[in-house]
Amino acid sequence: MNKDTSTSDAPTSNFIRNLIAEDISNNKHGGRVHTRFPPEPNGYLHLGHSKAICVNFGLAQQYDGHCNLRFDDTNPEKENDEYMRSIKEDVSWLGFKWTELRYASDYFDALYQFALELIDKNLAYVDSLNAEQMREYRGTLTEPGKNSPHRDRTIEQNRDLFERMKSGEFEDGAHALRARIDMSSPNMNMRDPVLYRIRHLDHYRTGDKWCIYPMYDYTHCLSDALENITHSLCTLEFEDHRPLYDWVLDNVTLTSPSRPEQTEFSRLNLQYTVLSKRKLIQLVEQGHVTGWDDPRMPTISGIRRRGYTADAVRDFCERVGVTKNNSMVDMGVLENSVREDLNSKAPRALAVLKPLKLVITNFPENSSETLTARNHPKDDSFGTREIRLSREIFVEQDDFMEDPPRKFFRLGPGREVRLRYGYCITCNEIIKDDTGNVIELRCTYDPETGSGQTPDGRKVKGIIHWVSATEAVDAEVRLYDRLFGVENPLASDDFTEHLNSESLQVLTQCKLEPSLLLAEKGANYQFERLGFFSADSVDHSTETPVFNRTVTLRDSWAKRSG
Ligand code: ATP
Ligand code: MG
Predict the structure, then answer these.
(1) Is residue 41 within 6 Å of ligand 1 at its C-beta?
(2) In terms of Cα–Cα distance, which of 166, 214, 168 is closest to 193?
(3) 2-270 maps to CATH 3.80.10.10
(4) Regarding the domain delimited by 348-471, which CATH topology (the fold level of the hierarchy) does it fall under?
C-alpha cells in the first residue's frame, strides 16, 4: 500500500554530506561517522528540531554510522521527565533509532574533573564578581572587556574555592568558574566565559548531588568528545561558539579516538508560526492552545495529532535541504509533502461537514440500495467497500446554490448532478424555513444512470459527495487554520498579538458514512472532495467520533494571500 512518493531515497548532495564524504575518503576520524541529536528537555520538540533530527540521524544512516540521542540537561530549573518522554517518542515516531541514549548529566563527574584540570593548568579561575559587574567587565562588541580583579588568584586559591563551591558553601551567584582566555577577544564568547555556576537546585536525574552546574558551551563539546562523536552538527547561531568549543577540547586531556568537529547549518524557520520552545511554552502556559499537542502547534506531537505523517515530515526536511543561509520556508511546502504522502496512503471515505437534507422523491421508501465505492481511486490494493443509498441523504450545503452562476456544476434548481458512486439526480424543489434558509432539497433520480453513464449520452458534469441520512453517523470535525495571521510573528514585540483568532473551527453536526466508525485513533482518511482528515488521537471514539482536518486538497492559503 505504501507508494513511493518520497525523495529521500536518493539524497541530494549538500555541503555537510560532501564534507562527510570527504572526511571518509581521507580516513579522518578513522572513517567513522558518529553524530548526535542533543535536545535540552525543557519543552516539546518542534518542526525545527525535525530538521536537526533528519540531518543527524539521516547522515548516520546514509554513512552506516551512529547517532546518539543526548539529553542536554544542565539547566535543572526548566527540565523534566515529561519533556524527555515526549522527545523520545517524537524521535521514534519520525522513524529514527538512536545508537545510545545519553545524558549530559551523566558526565557531571567527568566535567568536574576536567574543570580541575583547567584550574591546575591555570586556564580557569574562580571569579567573585556579581552578574552585573561581570556584564560591565565584559565590554561590548566595540570595546574590549577588562580583567576581573579575581583573575589572578593562585591555582591553590582557585582549587580551594571551586571545591567549596561544589560542597555547597556559597550562595547562588557568589562565585563562578571562568575560563581564562582573553578579555579583549573580538569574539565575546572568548572573553573568559563562565564554565560553572552555583545553583542550589535539585536536578531531575542527579537529585541534590550537585549545587554547581556546568554551562552549555563547556558541557557540549566535552559530551561530544566523551561519546566519540565525529561530526557535531548544530545551527548557525553556534558559529561564534566554535572557537570556544575547540578551546575546551584543546586544553583538556581526552582519550577519545578522534576529535569531534563542529559544523553549523541554517535553522528552519516556517511562516505563520514560531519555532522556538521558549515561545511555544508561552502559548501553552497562557492557554492560547490546548497543550503542546494542540493540532495547530508546530510541535511534532501537534502535527502528529493533526494527522501529518512521519514520511511527509522527512520528505519535507529533505526538500528544505541543508545550507548556510537562513530563510523562511512557506508552510505550503510542508503541506504539499503531507498532501502528496496522504494522497497515496489515505483510504477514501464520504463525509458531509455542513449537511443539507436531500430527499429522492422517486426512491422507494424504507428501502436502500447497496453501491460499491472504491477505497482509492488509483490503487486497487485498497479494495472496495459497500455504501448504502437511501431515499433521504445528506449533501454539503455548499454544493447547492439557489441562483448558481453558469460555471457552478453542482446543485441548483433544475440542475442535474451525479452522486458519487451512484445515480444522477435532478433538483426539483427547495424547502425553506420561516427565515428563508434552505433546509431541504427534493430531487428525483434517474435509475438508468447507475453505471456511471447516462443512457442518452447527456453530459452531467458535477459529482457531489453524500451520505445516507438513515445510516450516517454524527461526528465532530475540527478545521484548523494558521496559528498566526502574519508571516513572521516574531518580528513584533508581543508575538501573541498576531494569533489568528480563527485558527480553529469546530463543526459539530457532521455526518459520516458508517464505515468511519471503525476508524482507529490517529487513522488518516481522505474525505472525498473535502481534504485529508485524521481521527483525533485523544478525543475520538466509536461513541463520539472526532476528526481533525489535516490538510485541504489544494493550497487554499496561497489563493487567499496571493
Ligand atoms: P529552541 O530555541 O526552540 O528552544 P533550541 O535550539 O534551544 O530550540 P535544543 O533543545 O537546544 O533547542 O535543540 C536541539 C537541537 O535542535 C540543536 O542542535 C539545535 O540546533 C536544533 N534546532 C533547534 N531549533 C532548530 C531549528 N529551527 N532548525 C534546525 N535545527 C534546530
Ligand atoms: Mg537551546
Answers:
(1) no
(2) 214
(3) no
(4) Ribosomal Protein L25; Chain P (2.40.240)
